[in-house]
Amino acid sequence: MPDDRATILTAAVTGNLTRPDQNPNLPVTPEQIATAALDAASAGAAIVHLHVRDPETAKGSMRIDLYRDVIDRIRGRNADVILNLTTGEGGRFVPTDEDPQKAAPGSTLCVPEKRVAHIEALRPEICTLDFNTMWSGQASVINTPRNLEIMAKRIYASGVRPEIEIFDSGDLHLVKHFLKKRILAEPLLVQIVLGVRFGAVADPQTMAYLVGQLPPGSQWAAFGIGRMAFPMLAQAFLLGGHVRIGMEDTVQIAPGELCRDNAQLVEKAVSIVESLGGAIATPQQARKILGVTKAPG
Question: From the CA atom positions of the chain, what is the Rg in Å?
Fold first, then answer.
């Protein structure tokens, strides 16, 4: 299949909200996360989306040494897979009941410079840039226009391509505002997130609406959360987009059956795309489609 018609598969191998008690196979340590990424790449993922976790608590972390450890382990065995690091950590605020202006335990909200420090230090090919401000789980996610502008400018200055994450239609309006102000550069790389509670609903109509509102020429992917992970993967392919799967998004390979690892999820995703007449992009094809080169760091 021609390069421009191949489907790019991203494996999101751990995230920061999935818990080990939901699936004991969740990768937590740098070694486990790197192994999960390598296995996902071997199964067909052209991109691996990476968070790191505190090895002691299993909670999301922003430590650059953990990111460096994961990247070194991956690059020591695979120089081709595209690395996509999160900048989502550091955006959550939990208000205290007695004084909502004060942060309760679980808050991670910090200055934007800290949220992209690992991007500037490690310079992956891609990093996420979340445009959502919304209630998520037990916290408010806050991404102010000021902070997003600071992060975007630092990401571009690092030679890294931002993957714009949108969780609802308002996020896309903000993206278009940033385009007008020339804070973001076209063509965009967009990831549509569906099924997060109080965000965009995971159904074909919502995905089609958001895709129809994207700026012309955008490269996009979409995914669903939990039980909607595989249905939305198929829907994204049918609408002409790229796809994503991984234990950040779902811990089950089938209803009521836990997945053994990320590679199993990727294998099923590949099977779905191919059964619908598609072909999964290699890392080389994905680089050509997205216009990204080898990681400079």
Answer: 18
**Domains identified in the chain and CATH numbers:** 3-290 (3.20.20.70)
Please state, in angstroms and rounded to a whole number, the distance separating the CA atoms of residues 103 and 80: 42
- Under 8 Å between Cβ of 245 and 269: yes
Q: What share of the chain is helix, strand, coil (3-state, %, to 5)?
A: 35, 20, 45
How wide is the angle at C-alpha 265 spanned by C-alphas 262 and 271, nearest 5°?
140
Sequence-distant (6+) residues with CB within 8 A of 72 are none
Residues 202-208: what's their mean pLDDT? Answer: 98
pTM > 0.90:
yes
pLDDT of the residue at 297? 47
CA angle 221, 167, 33 (to 5 degrees): 65
Rounded to 10 degrees, the C-alpha dihedral 14/193/87/154 comes to 150
